[in-house]
Amino acid sequence: MGREFIDVFDEWSSTYDNTVVGTDPEYREVFKDYHKILEKVTDLSVGHVLEFGTGTGNLTKMLLEAGHSVTAIEPSSRMRAKAVEKLGDLVDIQDGDFLNFPLPNVMHSIVSTYAFHHLTDKEKMKAIALYGNILDAGGKLIFADTMYQSKAHQKQAIKDAIDAKFLNLAKDLQTEYYTTIPFLRSVLKENDFEVSFERCNDFVWIMEAVKQ
Ligand SMILES: C[S@@+](CC[C@H](N)C(=O)[O-])C[C@H]1O[C@@H](n2cnc3c(N)ncnc32)[C@H](O)[C@@H]1O
Fold it and tell me: Annotated binding residue at 51?
């Protein structure tokens, strides 16, 4: 589920690693401090990690280098192929998505960067409830993604993109399922997670939620 954007990622796979270093002015702020963001997610991870939306494998590589074992899930076949070019057989990247995936025998952290917004809010609720059931107490959800402090902030970000004539970015912000921190906070609370949010740039925040 939430796989309606896969064609975009198949197409983007060959240039994605250029975008994250800021070659596209429209997305420069979104990817500002990209590697630092991935490093922070890695530092917050514990034990065996389940990673969703691995893309070209940049976070996967950092997690493996930090000594974590990783179950990697990515729905785009071309993104999986790019990640294999980078990681060889260090990890088996499996076809799946946030809601349908092979469940590892043991798992302590569930992580994702720049991907959770591909689920609608209804799907996000379903996913968080599922993760709440499969994580033991102390298990963590660590997601870095674009999110907003309020609906008003979301509206303003779209207006800013249009005013800057960043029309591709504006379209993304309007058509993908970016959400608000208050929404995530309330869903996580309902599912027995204690959560904190840290701002990384004008768009991206890291959400760290610990199962109680
Ligand atoms: C912007 S890329 C981020 C890649 C990588 N995590 C990173 O930080 O560079 C988003 C990734 O999420 C994947 N994706 C899209 N829909 C998804 C879904 N429903 N479940 C899991 N991953 C999804 C895309 O195929 C793509 O590889």
Answer: no
